[in-house]
Fold this sequence. Notes:
Elements: H1 2-9, H2 17-26, E1 34-37, H3 40-50, E2 54-58, E3 72-76, H4 79-93, E4 97-101, E5 107-116, E6 120-127, H5 132-135, E7 138-141, H6 147-155, H7 174-190, E8 195-206, E9 209-212, E10 215-219
Helix pairs in contact: 3-4, 6-7
Amino acid sequence: xxxxxxxxxxxGTPPDSHASLAMLKDFGIAVxxxxxxxSEAEAVAAWTHIGGPVAVKTVxxxxxxxxxxxxxxxxxxxxxxxAAAWRDLAGRFGPDxxxxxxxxxxxEMLVGMTTDEDIGPVVAIGFGGVHVELQADIAFxxxxxxxxxxxxxxxxxxxxxxxxxxxxxxxxxxDALCDAAARFSTMAAALADRIREIDVNPLIVHPGGCVxxxxxTILHTSEEIPERQPL
Length: 231
């Protein structure tokens, strides 16, 4: 996986969300099913393949936060609505659209990596969703680390008790979250000379596991690529 993605990312074109999900999957992280389509008929076919409620999202380049520009339609489960969502996004952003499986309810978390000029890659884990900046409930660590260290990071979070169930809600699978965070940290360390930033948000954690839903990947520019270190 490291060799394959070193080559893929070395071509200089940032992967879109669909390709970034494929990268996470190659490192053992569960991801939502998704297809990139280019026409109304393909969008309807993708919804049929997925077989349930879907999100329909633009994959036009240069859009970091698709929700902020109205580039996402959520929880669609009718042929006419899928077709209408594709037409809306195609008319405003172009025909390239991602059709993704909606995940069951859970806690929206995030894992991410940024590059510090002095110390290199730094991994973040915390509570995510559209209000991540307001919550600002995140812990940081240097990658790679194991699931036990991910557990210690999670224990530092102010909203940690939400993962154990709150006001009658069911506890979510913290072990799956820790495993996903550890795998992400391994990927971040291995690909740090290609990836400058990557955000997995949301990473939905539910009682039966956790699933990456959306990913933003930013590559180093050619001037920023650090010297490759032996694995």
